[in-house]
Design brief:
Length: 205
């Protein structure tokens, strides 16, 4: 993933693009904040949280302000990691520049109470027609069992579950499409259950 690490992100003021693919859109801002707030609540007064990926910083703002030094964030793109350094909402957060799947290898068992899991999976890795569930499974398996190992027993992995598929217009009107938030009960939850970790998501309908 050296190309991802070194690629210069491009922005049109609305979306962020890396290697020609849109990795995040500002239309996600509302749902990212909602899910981040749920993740902050789940950490209680002392739990640490690992966030994978910075993007446009939409979830990071809520996580950084809510958890302060208990918020750890790892970003694989060099340029985005540099941008995090000047983000005032992250001034107390623990910032890591590198790939999350490499970072978690050196983390102690159960170090984090929860994980806010939002890595980007390229079309060339899973196919352009892959569902969000398939992308989630692919991404989480990149880190093997380590992403589960670093979560304490009873911890949660938070991620966005876009269902049904919204095609090219998937980002439009997201705030009005939130129909459920809570444990994932099927599909991608099986790999979480095998590790004894609960997967939580915002489901869009």
């Amino acid at each position: 993933m050296s190309s991802w690490r070194e690629a210069v992100p491009q922005s049109d003021g609305h979306g962020l693009y890396i290697l020609g693919e849109q990795v995040v859109s500002r239309d996600e801002a509302y749902v990212q904040r909602v899910l981040a707030q749920e993740a902050v609540k789940a950490c209680g007064d002392s739990g640490r949280l690992l966030e994978t990926g910075y993007g446009l910083g939409m979830s990071s703002e809520s996580l950084g302000r809510g958890l302060r030094s208990r918020h750890w964030i790892v970003e694989g793109n060099y340029w985005l990691a540099s941008a995090m350094m000047s983000d005032l909402s992250l001034r107390d957060s623990c910032i890591v520049s590198g790939l999350w799947e490499e970072f978690v290898v050196g983390v102690a068992d159960g170090f984090f109470a929860n994980v806010y899991f939002d890595p980007y999976v390229f079309d060339f890795q899973v196919g352009q027609d892959a569902t969000w569930q398939e992308r989630f499974i692919f991404a989480i398996r990149q880190g093997g069992t380590d992403i589960f190992r670093v979560v304490e027993p009873g911890g949660k992995i938070f991620f966005l579950n876009f269902a049904p598929e919204l095609g090219d217009e998937w980002a439009q009107g997201l705030s009005s499409r939130i129909v459920w938030a809570g444990p994932v009960s099927a599909g991608s939850s099986s790999i979480c259950q095998e590790a004894g970790i609960e997967c939580w998501a915002l489901r869009l309908g």
